[in-house]
Amino acid sequence: xxxxxxxxxxxxxxxxxxxxxxxxxxxxxxxxxxxxxxxxxxxxxxxxxxxxxxxxxxxxxxxxxxxxxxxxxxxxxxxxxxxxxxxxxxxxxxxxxxxxxxxxxxxxxxxxxxxxxxxxxxxxxxxxxxxxxxxxxxxxxxxxxxxxxxxxxxxxxxxxxxxxxxxxxxxxxxxxxxxxxxxxxxxxxxxxxxxxxxxxxxxxxxxxxxxxxxxxxxxxxxxxxxxxxxxxxxxxxxxxxxxxxxxxxxxxxxxxxxxxxxxxxxxxxxxxxxxxxxxxxxxxx
Length: 285
Prior knowledge:
mainly alpha, Arc Repressor Mutant, subunit A, 3 domains, about 0% strand
């Protein structure tokens, strides 16, 4: 059923007439200036063959062609929303980039459960390395030689190429999968991954120190007058972090005056904290 619907979609797209430059510009202007939905529909239908042709280039990643076409259609609509007909560029030329980008993002999100291609260099490596590897294998024997040459040609690190090669060469593995198939007591892969968290004793120590410093600071705030306290709370103790200009407007003073009051308040806090708690080097705030 899905294959039949996919074939009908492709057949319909291929039968859509090409647009002459004048007609394309007219439709684009009607959509750009008047949000004419009929013009948008006519413009996108005429360019669906471009989406289908692009989807064929990504079919080797093992993802459904219908889904690739759907993602490409989203890119096509994005291109239509951003296209400026006054620049004199053909819509197909402009839309190609958005269609490709949409499909590439879909492939990167769904090809593997491990997210990859987070930078432009990594995306280029992901989409170009497989074909480049096949080409280099004809003239180079070892994997290390292939990795070094590919790194030079793609402008990335050799280690990145080696890692991508490993990803493209093997399937995803569950962290809950046993290391061996022998017996029921086999250790899972997850058990061999080193933790990046701090040791528990250090975590507790940091938490206690943080709570202690927070109490010291709360007590020290009593040395500030009302205006100083407001500025410190708004500038230093608030998640938002108010600007000098905003506080100046609220208090009816200049932002430079706010800065001076803030500096004076910080010095007061440092003085009382260093006096009451000498071990707290450097004070706070």
